[in-house]
Amino acid sequence: MLLNFLKAEGYRASKMKCIWILPIVMFFIVMITSFVLLKVDMLGMMGMSREDMDAISEQGASAEGLEDSFRAGFNAGVDMGSDMASATTGIEDEEEEEEERPPVKIVGEGLLYREDVPELFYQNVCSLSNILLLAIFTGLFVGDVYSTGVTKNITIGNRKRGHLFTARMIVIAAYTFIFHIITYIWTLINVALMAESVKLNMDGAFFKYFLFSWIIVMAFCFVVAAVTTLTRSKAAGITVGVILSSGLLTMAISIANMILVRKFGLDSNFSLADYTLTQNLAVLNLHSEGHVVVRALMCSLIYGGLAYTAGLVTDKKRDIN
Amino acid sequence: MEELLLVTNELTKKYKNTVAVDNVDLHIRKGSIYGLIGKNGAGKTTIMKMLAGMAVPTSGSFEYVGFGGDNDQAFSRIGALIESPALQPNLTAFDNLKIKCLAYGIGDAEYINEKLKLVGLGNVGKKKAGKFSLGMKQRLGIALALVGEPDFLLLDEPINGLDPQGIVEIRDMIAKLNKENGITILISSHILEELSKIATDYAIINNGKIIEESTSDELKMKCRDKIVIKSADTSVILPLLDEKGFTEYQVIDKNTVYVFERLTDVSTLNMEIAKAGIPVDSIGVVSSDLEEYFLKVTGTIAGDKV
Q: Residue B83 belongs to a domain with what CATH number?
């Protein structure tokens, strides 16, 4: 029975226009992100060269390195200021300055110009634009059930309706996985078009990141599906999904965090945001430490599990209208 | 007695403080077309929803005795069109049917085309269901209900929105499904005259309660033209009726007798009763159709929407 429902729900999903439109939108988002990271010469705009950056990288994130980088930027600002001043004081100074400073250009080598595909894929995933689009898909897919009453056509008892709900969740999980692959393919294409070279680097770290980030994305979509099921409204599901993925709740979470720290005497380093799916997706990277990965997976399991259970119980108990 | 397909036992559905269905007992025979008659909000749809597994009864039960008694198994042998057809407006008729077919483990395109032809939608092509007329949607809803070759069909107002020709076609189709395929059908309709043309059994429901359950013949008897004699004591009239050769009559109660034959002899009969010295309160020919009868038994005042 579950397999039949899976086929039916899969077919229904395949007939939704958004299933094709959203990947196209994602392509443009990836293209813009890739352009900014691969082709916009941030260093040049700050008056720094790649050599300066490499020097900073060699010193690591030490106080000395940071200070030097700050100085480099500060001096560039000062130079620009003195440049303007020299226009009134003398031509000789101007010529001297022009020789020392590289010309400012916007398009050139971006910050990740020499990086590999997984690094750019990570940048595209942690930007949360994929979950924003997947929230729209989930809201439409689940909400359609209630706006059209399509489950009325399938005469099964409420007790067995859980199979239908489970099939729906599997389709969502499958689509999020496909969307993740599509995001990777779009990244690959853009790297091929804009980066120095295509470095696939499909090592263990990449596959782990791919899997863990997909689990977080899937859990997020389950939450959107649960909201849509509970409210029987696609608008409610999509709205919640968009609010969560666009960071509109940041302020509320910060306030809640402050209250928790003050009222319950929690450690000042405690961050409530660390226990949200979106923050976990933003923080998780290719080289995350073990505790970050465990926290992300635990959050996904709890949120996804609760959302699935809430939706399942509601769907089984509630009469069909 | 004919074999029963479905029996309900004090079936009740409450929504907060409203009792939508109140201790309903239905007895649906295998192979029958069972008409459920009731005005808006009487509880017809709620009964159907419970029988299709879409709503859980608050109390009471129902048993598909004709299917062996396991309701969960029985649901797979039921087709339903309840309230408006549940269609995906952005999909074609074919795609709408395919979703249900896949859920039922049927993947054959020919099967879907057959169902479309059966309901007269064989030539709709790629037209989206959202652009269908009300009648076409209703037909597609029936086609959806027929997927899986059900043995029991629940049709809630299936001829709503259809033009006269459409009504005739759907009526013929329902009769054909019943006769040729042996499908038992539970059907509700506001158009009682249409229902009376196909239904073999009836239940009249009002405010969630079943007022009357009868066969078509019994109902026709109640609705047919007749001489109604009202008297203080009808027992003295009966020998006179026998003497005058009347055989088709029925004593309704102590004061009322219905005579179903020789309706044109009403004045003669009146004279004979008077001659015999029997006091008569009233005598006359009364004719009523199903609609009038329904209004009478449900106590619906004139002007109420049925």
A: 3.40.50.300
Q: Minimal Cα distance from A16: which residue of B?
A: B90
Q: Is B109 on the interface with A (CB under 8 A)?
A: no
Low-confidence ranges of chain A (pLDDT < 70): 50, 57-104, 158
**Residue (of A146, A153, A166, A158) closest to A5 by Cα position:** A166
The partner residue sitting opposite A150, judged by closest CB among B49, B53, B88, is B88
- Shortest distance between the Cα of B100 and any Cα of chain A, in A, equals 7
Mean pLDDT confidence for B33-50: 91
- Check whether residue B30 and residue B164 sit in a common domain: yes
Instruction: Find out whether B45 and B84 touch, Cβ atoms under 8 Å.
Output: no
Segment B222-276, tens digit of pLDDT: 777 888 899 888 888 899 899 888 888 888 888 888 888 888 888 989 998 888 8
Cα distance from B30 to chain A (closest Cα, Å)? Answer: 19
**What is the pLDDT, as a whole number, of residue B92?**
96
CATH number at residue B273: 3.30.70.980
| Separation between Cα atoms, residue B169 and residue A208, nearest integer Å | 62
Q: Per the domain annotation, does B181 fall within a domain?
A: yes
- Residue B100's pLDDT is what? 93
Sole residue written with tokens 């049927």: B106
Confirm whether B206 is domain-assigned: yes
Give this prediction's pTM.
0.81
Provide the 8-state DSSP code for B250: E
Q: Are residues B151 and B274 in the same domain?
A: no
Interface ipTM: 0.78
Contacts of A158 in chain B (CB under 8 A): 53-54, 56
The interface residues of chain A toward chain B in range 138-197, judged by CB-CB distance below 8 A, are 144, 148-160, 164
Residues B17 and B88 in one domain: yes
In a domain, B44, yes or no: yes
Residue B247's domain comprises: 225-286
Please list every residue in chain B whose beta carbon sits closer than 8 Å to the beta carbon of residue A234: none
Verify that B155 and B245 share a domain, yes or no.
Answer: no
End-to-end CA distance of chain A: 22
Q: Which residues in chain A touch residue B15, judged by CB atoms under 8 angstroms apart? A: none
Domain annotation covers residue B291: no
Task: Using CB atoms within 10 Å of the CB of residue B239, give its burial: 0 to 12 exposed, 13 to 18 middle, 19+ buried.
Answer: exposed
